[in-house]
């Protein structure tokens, strides 16, 4: 599957940890650990695009040239499952701002319903990185991107772990100005709109619900 604004990240660490996430026999502790590993690899990949500013730094021996992030970044986890990726983001980008989007799919219709939203005010001047491990029908991320654009966001990147072709098509076509980065593109959705082969219900496996 390809789209101009889709990037599939390849890395041996991703393959290894994703296989453990997919395994139905993986313990909750291991699931949480490997969700963190995958999130960090994705975040390291996405921050290749971060702008840097030249700075001077004084080491114990001399003054020299250095570089630091010029971008102001806000991460937006899509509740609940996106929280699994938030800790990795806060570990790597320690003073990152955090916005929250609460969406829940109806178990019968798989249509996402918004139940919570709390965003920083100045989204127009920030790089917004949305965290949601599962992209299935695309309803949750389509709704999130629309909400962010309504708030003025101009630079938006979506970070997913497992994505289905249906969701990729919906998000990349509706938002050609948004970049979608994922660790895996799976085969399809089943009759219940779950990703196949996927890894099951991410939130339930991560939080033990
Ligand atoms: C899951 C997942 C995504 C969404 C993807 O959340 O975390 O947010 O489904 O499905 P979609 O692309 O069809 O919208 P869910 O609604 O199950 O809520 P949860 O994170 O609280 O478990
Ligand atoms: N949400 C999940 O957690 N898993 C899926 O397969 C689809 C939506």
Description:
The chain has one domain (6-207): Rossmann fold, CATH 3.40.50. Helix 4 (139-150) links the parallel strand 9 (134-135) and strand 10 (155-163). With 209 residues, the protein is an alpha/beta fold. It has helices spanning 12-22, 28-46, 83-92, 139-150, 165-174, 202-207, and strands at residues 6-8, 52-58, 63-69, 73-79, 97-98, 100-105, 112-118, 127-131, 134-135, 155-163, 179-185, 188-189, 195-196. Strands 1, 4, 5, 6, 7, 8, 9, 10 and 11 form a nine-stranded mixed beta sheet that branches. A two-stranded antiparallel sheet has the order 2-3. The chain is globular. It has six helices and 13 strands. Residues 78, 80-81, 103-105, 110, 112, 132-140, 167, 193, 202-203 line the site of 1-O-pyrophosphono-5-O-phosphono-alpha-D-ribofuranose.
Mean pLDDT, rounded to whole units?
A: 96
Kindly report how far apart the N and C termini lie: 33 Å
How large a portion of the residues is in β-strands, by DSSP E? 25-35%
Helix content: 25-40%
CA-based gyration radius: 17 Å
Integer count of domains = 1
Q: Let me know the largest β-sheet.
A: 9 strands, mixed
CATH class identity: Alpha Beta
Q: How would you describe the oligomerization state of the chains in this entry?
A: single chain
Q: Please state the overall shape, judged from the principal axes of the Cα atoms.
A: globular
């Amino acid at each position: 599957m390809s789209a101009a604004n889709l990037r599939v990240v390849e890395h041996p660490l991703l393959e290894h940890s994703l296989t453990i996430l997919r395994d139905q026999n993986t313990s909750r502790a291991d699931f949480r650990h490997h969700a963190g590993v995958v999130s960090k690899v994705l975040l390291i990949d996405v921050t290749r695009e971060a702008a840097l500013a030249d700075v001077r730094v004084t080491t114990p021996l001399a003054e020299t040239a250095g570089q630091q992030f010029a971008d102001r970044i806000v991460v937006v986890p899509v509740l609940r499952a996106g929280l699994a990726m938030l800790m990795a983001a806060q570990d790597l980008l320690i003073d990152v701002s955090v916005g929250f989007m609460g969406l829940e799919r109806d178990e019968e219709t798989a249509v996402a319903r918004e139940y919570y939203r709390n965003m920083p005010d100045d989204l127009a001047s920030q790089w917004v990185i949305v965290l949601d491990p599962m992209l299935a029908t695309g309803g949750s991320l389509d709704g999130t991107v629309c909400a962010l654009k309504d708030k003025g966001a101009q630079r938006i990147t979506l970070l997913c772990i497992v994505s289905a072709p249906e969701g990729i098509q919906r998000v990349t076509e509706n938002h050609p100005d948004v970049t979608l980065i994922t660790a895996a593109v799976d085969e399809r959705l089943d009759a219940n709109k779950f990703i196949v082969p996927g890894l099951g219900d991410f939130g339930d496996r991560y939080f033990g619900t």
